[in-house]
């Protein structure tokens, strides 16, 4: 809305012409490519607007309705048509390209445009396909010699000569009817009062439009000096923007100036004829006006007319006495300078990206942040103002930021408004906005924005200023799900599968994991496989698959290993369990000595096995994992069971065996010395079935013999000289011949796997040296012989033949100092002191032999 709109709440009936124009403009929009639903909503808004026109409303009500109704065009949505998208892209290749014949100027002014033939465009032909009412501003207009520096019939003024008179100003015609027309030219920077407000040093020359010649009277204008005009080509329906400076050489007793007047060349239609006050109530200063060119007008006359706030058009102190000209009686009125004429603004939009892909930044985020860019190009010839981009965003969208525009986001309606402010003529302004789109599921968002704007000029026509509108090419946003966690999980798991031997795992568990990987691959390839957005998986499902892959990986089931091998050792009363194959864990269960059920676990880490606990009687071979269970660690003779596992496999079948029973320790063997035979006899006791006899051999070496019972028979492992066994009782006799004389014999015995019995020890009786032979003395007289022992003998045996012819013997034994006979048959006697034994004839066969040892 322009600054001149009526805002009084008391107005009974306001001006609704601009609303009518907007309704007609909207009715001309081509709806062929719009969706049925959006057309229905758009037509409903137009119908309501037409009904609104039928009732009386205040200006404030009309203005409010207009502001709401202008957004109706943004509700139109384009149909999704691939052919149409291609067509739009082709059109977009040429859309917004700056015209090559535009004239650059930092002030967006074109005062020096050279006149074109009548009807020739100063720029480009307006885009007839546009619905923008300001599209006609693309064709520029202009004036010739708007800075008045091209003259003839005289010289331009300078700093020393403030005012000169010429006969012609190129491009301009005087309104004077006098045949001897004159054009006073003033250096506006030299005016006496307020030169800063009444001049432009870059265009200092002004044409003075009034002069009096009667000194201080100043009542009668000089007919040779008058207003000026120029006929210029304009584009029908365009806006005409005129900038000019109105100056007074002095403001003494009068404040002169100029006004602009715009008519058709024949003068029959007046389009503008008003005084503009630029300095308070006075008609001077840097002035600006804009009017609408009617649809049936293509050429207008721009005139500048002298005016004043007094009865006279000239001011005192403007004669030669004050540096203006060379005549002391000439006084001067208002001057016009720096005339610039252009068409208004024409803003079109351009997009560099039609399709966007925005992805949420994590698996837990519900939003996908993205930045949308729109380029605004002013193809007109005056700056635009209130250049506003509007777009409806998906419900729930969060606004983040914008560049090159002030913003307003209505979360209730989801309408985002970006005010880009002014866009200078012939330039572009890129605006962008960053928002967080809802991203709980994949979706396509169609962004159908529009741009509204006005020409940045003071509208002074009798009608209302037009608003421009441009429909932005549809931009499509694909809201994509975050898949990086799934992608990483997929790749890591695929790599893991490549490193294992699938044959070591159950077919079901491997297939379950592969099915999840296939499911993940399908999700990761949705875009490549052109899966429709509506059929793509949402974030919750993607997160679920990511988790399920890990679960199935953990659930990979190794095959059940072979049963462990268990062997017993009767001799040691122990049992050994050995794991098989690729087993990495073996559990051994047993009964402790106190009767409690127990277990130990052997675990393989790398190439080493170890036990979780090493109670008494248990040991492990760290290389092959064999666990030995000795009788000390279990209840005697109890059962041991074991099973293998590999990873998360099911346990193998159990192997079970009893630890061999540990027999009780038997009694020590009995050793009986035999003095007479210089020997000892070692006799096993009880149920013993093994007896070991240690002795010293004659050469001094320690030796042993082992007596073993098999069934009811005992045998020796060897039978060296002097050692013998009783095969029935197991008694081992060690005689002096087999040992070092008088050395010690040691013996232990066992029963089965019992511990050895306590030792029995005894020395073999010493074998004495052989004494001298006894002396036999015959006695012829008494028919007897006497046998006398010699030396230290303590035993003497006498052999004889009894009277009946039987061989006989008697034994004399010394005990202490007394000798005795074992018997005293007839004819045989002993000397108890000397041990001499007398054998008389009565006791022997007559004449038989007697021997003794």
UniProtKB/TrEMBL annotation:
One Pfam family hit: DUF11
State where composition is biased (Polar residues).
Answer: 88-114, 639-650
User: Which residue stretches belong to region Disordered?
Assistant: 88-134, 639-658, 665-686
Which keywords does this chain's UniProt record carry?
Answer: Coiled coil
The residue stretches assigned to a coiled coil in this entry are: 483-537
* Residue ranges constituting the DUF11 domain according to the UniProt record: 369-437
Q: Which protein are we looking at? A: YSIRK signal domain/LPXTG anchor domain surface protein
The cross-references to InterPro entries, in alphabetical order and at most eight, read:
OmcB-like_DUF11, SasC/FmtB_aggreg_dom
Q: What superkingdom does the record give?
A: Bacteria
